[in-house]
Write a structure and sequence with these properties.
With 178 residues, this protein is mainly α. 64% of the residues lie in helices and 7% in strands. It has a two-stranded antiparallel ribbon with strand order 1-2. Helix 1 runs antiparallel to helix 2 and helix 4 runs antiparallel to helix 5. It is elongated. The two termini are 38 Å apart.
Length: 178
């Protein structure tokens, strides 16, 4: 559970960071903010500062809730409702608790990663609005954040799948011929 505690701490720190980000940028933003950017990375959607900040705060908290509630619900779900490789093996009574902990840690880190990405997107949006130009554009930090987020999600998914895709062979069992 140590990894779960670290992930929860990271989530709390990121939520605090998002709150500080909101408090820092709110007085600096114009009343009408660029809030959507098209494929050219130029602003093509606008909203009132108050509605953007309210929406951003709700999204940050909402994402954490949406990603964490299933973690705690899976412990009570019947095995048939859990979609993962070799679920009958991994959720056998003798392995159920350990499997649940490993799945929980994975989900917590995915929540932290998503929260971090949302903070990067908001930062890019704030910086674009600070430029005070007629057509603000997102900077390169958005693409870096997106690339890192996608790579980390892919890596985490592959790692999760490979962890549970194979059933370990008992030490006294002969190898299966190929």
């Amino acid at each position: 559970m140590k990894n779960a505690n670290v992930a929860l701490l990271v989530i709390l720190v990121l939520l605090l960071g998002a709150a500080l980000q909101l408090m820092h940028y709110y007085p600096l933003m114009p009343e009408r903010m660029a809030t959507h950017f098209g494929t050219s990375m130029q602003a093509d959607g606008w909203s009132a500062r108050q509605s953007f900040f309210t929406t951003y705060a709700l999204v940050e908290v909402g994402v954490v809730i949406i990603l964490l509630v299933p973690v705690f619900l899976t412990k009570r779900l019947p095995t048939s409702m859990i979609n993962m490789p070799n679920r009958d093996y991994w959720f056998a009574p003798e392995r159920r608790e350990d499997t649940w902990v490993q799945m929980s840690v994975y989900a917590l880190w995915m929540a932290a990663l998503t929260l971090g990405f949302l903070i990067v997107v908001a930062e890019a949006t704030f910086r674009a609005n600070l430029a005070r130009v007629a057509a603000p554009t997102l900077g390169h930090s958005f693409f870096w954040g997106l690339g890192i987020y996608v790579a980390a999600v892919l890596l985490g998914t592959v790692r999760f799948y490979t962890r549970f895709a194979k059933i370990p062979r008992a030490p006294d069992t002969p190898p299966v011929p190929e």
